UniProtKB/TrEMBL annotation:
Coiled coil: none annotated. This is Amidophosphoribosyltransferase. The lineage of its organism: Bacteria, Pseudomonadati, Pseudomonadota, Gammaproteobacteria, Oceanospirillales. Keywords: Glutamine amidotransferase, Glycosyltransferase, Magnesium, Metal-binding, Purine biosynthesis, Transferase. Mg(2+) binds at residues 302, 364-365.
């Protein structure tokens, strides 16, 4: 997952883009970037780091223009080199900058096609640069100096025909406008809205609704799967269904990725967390009516809401036994297992008296690599807990993600190949309770009954897009396992895109 945003306004957009990125920071902590369009020129600043570190006053001053796109990155393809930070840029046709959230599952074969048939060079190993070049190539086919919205929509349709996987995209076309589109399954989120100014209507397209509301934009609606929305240079909105879509939003957005104050595809994430807690409490009461839990505790941050609901439904006290250091980011999306392990201890510390002699039920939203729960359970025991029970508001994650979440190998997942009982032993819990997948689907869908299908591949191994087979998963695992990535973490690729002046 990454965070993307595009704005077409009547004032300079640099500060608006910066504000939106800070609100989307939870979607990517590795790199950030922004391109603005002012006086016919693109201005680009991108680098590794958090939003507040990448954009200093000296950069902001130069990022002028009323239109721009921006990105926060959490890599799922290529390397963590700053050259692969986004947006990416191509000069032909027109000059296009693009930012992408997701992952292309046929990146390798398109790269070959781009080189051999379209005569295009890809300079990095990022799938986003590939996506940009497919879009650019297809746009060239219109052969027009003054393209119309239909020409952009036609190019998006060709992108859908050529690219497979999960993708939500914003792109800025010099002299023409900003376009946003989403893959035909709508796996990754994208929403757009507007606000009125004295000089006219302004538009924002972003990964999550919270980016819009934070800057006073009113949500119009989610971009539909396979649809494109285009805001031209006069700030006129055009929308078009480029290919038929079937909505399958990623279930993990509701479990962990999206902010609780966002509404994704009409489903309020906070309410989804609440219901996950309620239904999990029902399961506990059903399967373990004689439980001896004294107290319910969240593992901050994401599980707070569901833990509170569990406590309420069980009629037990809710206690915050772990204090979170607010200056440490999300550990799951940090690169490298060593960093993640160290960060859990730095991030969370236990309040001893809350554990002393008690049977505690710890609640987390999910168990991925098991880094958090293993350490937390140990900390709870060290703090004097009598018994440590653990519950996860999501089912066990046993399968890799191929659509934009960095879980590339099943071997890295603690639940891989293990029964629930074996996971319980592995993480050192006295009892472990997972949410059932059918329950999860039912409650999330009940918040927007129009959505009946989700991408639940990390839970059930069913991949809806991209013809994923075991050979693909084997190659993905080989290219993105911890060892390969540890050797790649360097800035060995020269960045062709960065303006010296802005660096
Ligand atoms: O099993 P693991 O590999 O440890 O991954 C799962 C954990 O990672 C996430 O927390 P994170 O610290 O990223 O973010 P949060 O503060 O939003 O909960 C998630 O909420 C779980 O706590
Ligand atoms: N997490 C994402 O959405 C990643 C986008 C893109 N695949 C990259 O690696 O930069
Ligand atoms: Mg967490």
């Amino acid at each position: 997952m990454c965070g993307i945003v595009g704005i077409s306004a009547t004032v300079n957009v640099n500060q608006l883009l910066f504000d939106a990125l800070t609100v989307l920071q939870h979607r990517g902590q590795d790199a950030a970037g922004m391109v603005t369009l002012g006086g016919g020129n693109f201005y680009l600043r991108k680098d590794n780091g958090l939003v507040r570190d990448v954009f200093r006053t000296r950069h902001m001053k130069k990022l002028v223009g009323h239109m721009g796109i921006a990105h926060v990155r959490y890599p799922t393809a290529g390397t963590s080199s700053s050259a692969e930070a986004q947006p990416f840029y191509v000069n032909s046709p027109y000059g296009i900058a693009l930012a992408h959230n997701g992952n292309l599952t046929n990146a390798e074969s398109i790269k070959q096609e781009l080189f051999k048939t379209d005569l295009r060079h890809i300079n990095t190993r990022s799938d986003s640069e590939i996506l940009l070049n497919v879009f650019a190539h297809e746009l060239v086919q219109s052969g027009k100096l003054q393209p119309k919205p239909e020409d952009f929509f036609k190019a998006v349709r060709r992108v859908h025909e050529r690219c497979e996987g999960g993708y939500a995209v914003v792109a800025m076309i010099n002299g023409h406008g900003i376009i946003g589109f989403r893959d035909p399954y709508g796996i990754r989120p994208l929403i757009f809205g507007k606000r009125e100014s004295e000089k006219g209507t302004e538009y924002m397209i972003a990964s999550e609704s919270v980016a819009l509301s934070a800057s006073g934009f009113e949500v119009i609606r989610d971009v539909e799967p396979g649809e494109a929305v285009f805001i031209d240079s006069e700030n006129q909105l055009h929308t078009f269904q480029c290919v038929q879509g079937v909505k399958h939003p990623c279930m993990f957005e509701y479990v962990y990725l999206a902010r609780p104050d966002s509404i994704v595809d009409g489903i309020p994430v906070y309410q989804a967390h609440q219901r996950m807690g309620q239904i999990l409490a029902n399961k506990i009461l059903r399967e373990w009516p004689e439980h001896d839990i004294d107290v319910v505790m969240p593992i901050p941050d994401t599980s707070r809401t569901s833990a509170l609901e569990i406590a309420t439904r069980l009629g037990l006290p809710y206690r915050e036994g772990f204090v979170k250091n607010r200056y440490i980011g999300r550990t799951f999306i940090m690169p490298g297992q060593e960093v993640r392990e160290k960060s859990v201890r730095q991030k969370l510390s236990a309040i001893h008296q809350e554990f002393e002699g008690k049977n505690v039920l710890l609640v987390d939203d999910s168990i991925v690599r098991g880094t958090t729960c293993q350490q937390i359970i140990e900390m709870a025991r060290d703090s004097g807990a009598k018994s440590v029970y653990f519950s996860s508001a999501a089912p066990a994650i046993r399968y890799p993600n191929v659509y934009g979440i960095d879980m590339p190998t099943s071997e890295e997942l603690i639940a891989y190949g293990l029964t629930d009982k074996e996971i319980e032993t592995e993480i050192g819990a006295d009892r472990l309770i997972f949410q059932d997948l059918e329950d999860l689907k039912k409650i999330v869908s009940s918040l927007n009954p129009q959505i009946t299908d989700f991408d639940c591949s990390v839970f059930d191994g069913k991949y809806i897009a991209g013809g994923i087979d075991s050979e693909y998963l084997r190659r993905l695992a080989a290219s993105r396992n911890e060892e390969t990535r540890a050797n790649e973490r360097s800035d060995s690729i020269m960045d062709l895109h960065n303006d010296e002046e802005l660096a």
